[in-house]
């Protein structure tokens, strides 16, 4: 399909890597959930703009004006991509982590936060200054809604509350019932923020249609790895909050007072939370990726990706030692992210062997979702007991291609393959 071919990423296509067994092989990049390579279109758009680079909101010169227009037009493109309502703001950040920390800093006083223990750490941890209720891992999408409804029914109905949920898991790839969770949140007077870091590259995300209050995502997972992210949604809490960063660009007017202090008149637009010189290349790259995905058509992308998901799952099902990790069961709808363990193998050894012997790049570990992966690993009755193998820390690798001689038992971490429609 030519529209999907147009989405082939730049990297991992014709890159050859050496193998420990000698010779080299074309690299298979299967770690898009950690970070996805730039689409050719994004790369080309960034390169075409590069000679015209200039400061945003900070210059009278032609290139500054052009760069400012590009930056603000990118905001409109992202708003369109997300189906934003007229009153929504699109704030450019560094990443999903940054976006959710911004929202955490903008919570009204005495806000209660409800978050599943299964969340990525970026959505689990930023709420440490609020009163947080951690919800138990549900085992069906319906149970997720019930758990939330039960927790919300017990809350103070007059105080502000926020639910934070991931649209697609970066561990299992499974889709969460976002629309139903949003309806439950709103029925109990709470608001909801969608962590779309893993969802947006694979599925259309429409704020108005899902009826969520905010959406956060990262450029680097959306084939635009140039250092920008997005927080989009309701303006009221953002406008009422102290600026996330204090500095140039966030303030309309700053003046010394007669008493020697300083008066600041902060912007009430998205600029309030965007102090400092904007990353126009990162933002331009995100807008370019939004256009590329929209033009390819999510129907085409989903269809192609589901073929790949089926092939990988069918292949894994043929290996008796492999156990695919799943919270909601085999039939749950999912994106191109599949985590598994191989009985008798330490996941770090296995992932290292895939790279060294086959040139396949995957990730092993707990994927910044420790409680979730531990729940998934701990639930297999066929793998009782602790495995003697240590959890691999960052960069820790043992001899490749060698199954551990001892400590066969429950895995302490998992292997993840992840990809997109253009893979
Ligand atoms: N949420 C989810 C579901 C993710 O997959 C990720 C990235 N793996 C994040 C949040 C955090 O994104 P970032 O590292 O770009 O801030």
Automatic annotation (TrEMBL):
Cofactor section: pyridoxal 5'-phosphate
UniProt source species: Streptomyces sindenensis
Transmembrane intervals: none
Listed Gene3D superfamilies: Aspartate Aminotransferase, domain 1, Type I PLP-dependent aspartate aminotransferase-like (Major domain)
Pfam families noted in UniProt: Aminotran_5
Claim: Disulfide bond is one of the keywords in the record: no
Record's compositionally biased regions (Low complexity): 381-393
Aminotransferase class V domain sequence ranges: 30-423
Keyword Magnesium appears in the UniProt entry: no
Keywords: Aminotransferase, Pyridoxal phosphate, Transferase
MF (Gene Ontology): transaminase activity
Region (Disordered): 379-407
Protein name in UniProt: Aminotransferase class V-fold PLP-dependent enzyme
